[in-house]
Each structure stands twice: as structure tokens, then as C-alpha cells.
Design brief:
With 357 residues, the protein is of the alpha/beta class. The protein contains 14 helices and 13 strands.
């Protein structure tokens, strides 16, 4: 009889990074040969079932459906992505912690799967998180900074393992990407991927647009604007007037393959940088959150610009330098990513271990 897993995360919102995390988790379970029935808590169950064939999906805000799914589960997983943080709002962390608390109340085993924890600035959220997380069976995180934060919060009872982001296991869909680039007449051009997102103020945005535009002009390359969450990123991306927007509904396999066709990736969204590293494409990060700086450091890169100190000239210079060194940089980040891809499977192995208990 199949084991039953319930997965809670930011699914069904059209965010490419979070859908890539789910896709990577499912790939890990397939690679390990697990016989499991997966139920995903989603904001749009119909969309989730269409994008991830084989899963069952319940609306995340349907209390009866969520309780019934959890009650039947052999394991309740929270993750991955940046679910337990209070930068965007306290409600986000409270929701995901509530799902874990509900599962613990129903006496179901719980696991935090390859998450990036924090930032957590509100004392009450830190205490609430520590109380819930200390009752989980197992925690894996995608970076060492997350483990350090958990330790500082007093999370010590379950073992905390550093693995890597599940999205390293997403297989790029080259055929879909070729069709998309053909559609936009981009196949024969030198391409530079660009991923921008909205963030608090627009001071940095003017510098980012100026820096990217002047670098593209100097290098004679075409900026391919890749909206990682189309409902939010497309408006920001249109500010890059000479760029070509290539939306594809947020499909992570297509987007990873589009990035593989670029000579360089200028990325603000974390998963645009993860995808680039995984396919051996050099990248220039734009830092807005500690997770961007941490990932850039993990692949031997520094930010081309920080939104807290916007500098168009600095960003332009970083892009131009990286473009000229893109082949060597691509090899370097690809070597770092190789280890992370291997580590991405570890969280799946540990989940399998919990199912056997």
C-alpha cells in the first residue's frame, strides 16, 4: 500500500521558484523509487494538478479538506522555499507554522524539507516558530545560514541537516524553450537573461534598468526578460524597454532551459540564479535579501548590485566583466552546482527514512 505524504508550501500562485521546489521534491521521490501518494495544499488545486501530473491537490484554505488530508497522511512536509520568514508579512510564517502545528495536534509525523529559514525579526514569531519546529521529526535546510538562525532561536530537538534546494533536480525542457525562443525570434541572437522583481521602493530599479541597458548596448546583446512570477514581475520587466519578455506561465522546466540558452544571467529572483548555476551559465546577482547574498557566495560569486546601495555604473561594469569571462565563470558555477544537485537528493532520502519508521 502506498504511503501518503501531504506537502504544504507556496504552491498554486504561479511562482516559478516555488513550483520548481515542488517539481524537484517530486523528482527526488521518483528517483528514489518511493511508492507514495502525494497531496499538495495549493491556492489553485486545478492548476497544481495540471502542472504536476500524478499529485492530488486540496485548497490550502479549505479547513475540512486540509484536516482530512493530514489525518490520513503518513508524513506531513513543510517546504521548501522561504516559508518561515516575516519580511513580507507575519501571516505567511503563521500559516505554514499553523499547518505543522495542526499535523502535530493530529499526531502525524512532520518534516521541514530543504527550506531557507528567515529573516525572522519579530520576537513573537521567532518564539512561535521555535516551539513548533522543536516538535518536528526532522529538519533539512538549503543553506548553513538557515541552520545558524535555527540554532540561535533555540531549535535543537530535531536534527537539522544542511542539504540544498530541491530545484536542482528540475530537468530543463529544451524543446519547449526552443519553441519559445523561436516564437520571439531570439534563436540567432546573443542573449542575456534578466530576472527582476518588485521590491519595496523603486530607487534601485532605476539603477538596475540603467545598468542593464547600458551593458546590453555596449556588448550588443539582447536582454531576455524572464518573469519568475508573472503576476508580479512582468510590470517591472517592462521597464527594460529594449528587452524581450518571454513569459511561459511560470513553467520551471521551460525557464531553466531558456536560461541555459543565455550567455549570462542577471538575476534578482533566487531560482533564476539557481537555474543558471545548475546549467553552467555565469550569473550576476542583484541582492535584495540575505538568501541572494548567501547563494551567490556559495557559488563563488558576489552581488553585482545591492538594492540598498543602487549603483548603475557598478552593475554595468559587473555585467560587462562577467560577459567577457562567461565561459570560465560558467564552468566554475557549474562545478559548485554539481555538488548541490547531489545534495538535493538527500532531503528525499531522509523523508523516505521517516516513512519507514
Amino acid at each position: 500500500m502506498s504511503k501518503r505524504i501531504v506537502i504544504s508550501g507556496y504552491y498554486g500562485f504561479g511562482n516559478t521558484g516555488d513550483e520548481a521546489v515542488l517539481d524537484g521534491m517530486l523528482a527526488a521521490f521518483r528517483n528514489l523509487g518511493l511508492d507514495v501518494e502525494i497531496t499538495v495544499l495549493s491556492a489553485d488545486p486545478t492548476r497544481t494538478i495540471a502542472e504536476h501530473p500524478g499529485v492530488i491537490s486540496m485548497h490550502r484554505y479549505s479547513p475540512g479538506a486540509v484536516i482530512n488530508a493530514i489525518r490520513r497522511a503518513d508524513l506531513v512536509i513543510s517546504g521548501g522555499g522561504s516559508l518561515i520568514q516575516d519580511v513580507t508579512s507575519a501571516r505567511s510564517a503563521q500559516y505554514y507554522l499553523y499547518v505543522l502545528r495542526l499535523a502535530q495536534f493530529l499526531r502525524r509525523p512532520t518534516m521541514v524539507y530543504a527550506q531557507g529559514i528567515g529573516p525572522l525579526d519579530r520576537p513573537n514569531i521567532r518564539r512561535y516558530a521555535a516551539r513548533i519546529l522543536n516538535k518536528t521529526k526532522l529538519i533539512t535546510v538549503r543553506d548553513s545560514d538557515s541552520r545558524t538562525l535555527l540554532e540561535s532561536m533555540g531549535v535543537s530537538i530535531p536534527p537539522v541537516h544542511v542539504t540544498s534546494d530541491p530545484s536542482f533536480l528540475v530537468e530543463p525542457d529544451l524543446e519547449a524553450a526552443n519553441d519559445l525562443l523561436d516564437k520571439h525570434g531570439l534563436q540567432s541572437r546573443a542573449l542575456m537573461g534578466v530576472s527582476l522583481r518588485p521590491w519595496i521602493t523603486n530607487d534601485w530599479l532605476h539603477a538596475a534598468i540603467d545598468g542593464i541597458s547600458s551593458a546590453c548596448e555596449e556588448l550588443d546583446v539582447t536582454a531576455v526578460v524572464i518573469p519568475m512570477q508573472e503576476s508580479e514581475d512582468m510590470e517591472v520587466g517592462t521597464k527594460l524597454s529594449k528587452g524581450v519578455m518571454v513569459g511561459c506561465g511560470g513553467n520551471p522546466r521551460t525557464i531553466k532551459a531558456v536560461i541555459a540558452g543565455c550567455g549570462l544571467m542577471v538575476g534578482m529572483r533566487l531560482h533564476s540564479l539557481i537555474f543558471a548555476a545548475d546549467v553552467g551559465v555565469a550569473c550576476v546577482p542583484i541582492a535584495y535579501d540575505p538568501k541572494i547574498t548567501a547563494f551567490a557566495s556559495s557559488i563563488g560569486r558576489g552581488p553585482g548590485m545591492d538594492v540598498n546601495s543602487p549603483d548603475a555604473g557598478k552593475l554595468r561594469d559587473a555585467i560587462v566583466t562577467a560577459w567577457h569571462e562567461r565561459e570560465a565563470l560558467g564552468v566554475s558555477v557549474g562545478e559548485h552546482a554539481k555538488h548541490m544537485r547531489e545534495m538535493a537528493l538527500e532531503s528525499g532520502k531522509m523523508a523516505a527514512g521517516l516513512l519507514e519508521q
